[in-house]
Specification:
Number of strands: 3
Structural class: alpha+beta
Strand order of the largest sheet: 2-1-3
Number of domains: 1
Radius of gyration: 14 Å
Protein name: L-sorbose 1-phosphate reductase
Organism: Vibrio parahaemolyticus
Number of helices: 3
Shape: globular
Order of helices and strands: HEHEEH
Distance between the termini: 32 Å
Length: 75
């Protein structure tokens, strides 16, 4: 099953359309995510979001990981 939580200020219709386009393979929203981190990284990320470059920051509550740029995993 898929669990989707969050909003960027769009309407419910925007969310439905984006899920449909994603499921049809017409868009790939993963390119918008530039950083990942665990729950302990959330406060710093929220308080410093304007100073952290990139796009969306994805927080996983079940892992222990400092906020890390996706590009750092590739190097």
């Amino acid at each position: 099953s898929t669990h989707i939580v969050g909003t960027s200020g769009g309407s419910k219709g925007d969310m439905v359309e984006s899920i449909e386009l994603s499921s049809q393979g017409k868009i790939n929203p993963s390119f918008m995510i530039t950083h990942v981190g665990g729950l302990q990284a959330a406060p710093h990320t929220i308080l410093n979001q304007l100073d952290i470059p990139g796009g969306k920051k994805l927080i996983y509550p079940h892992i222990d990981l400092p906020l890390t740029a996706i590009d750092d995993f590739l190097s």
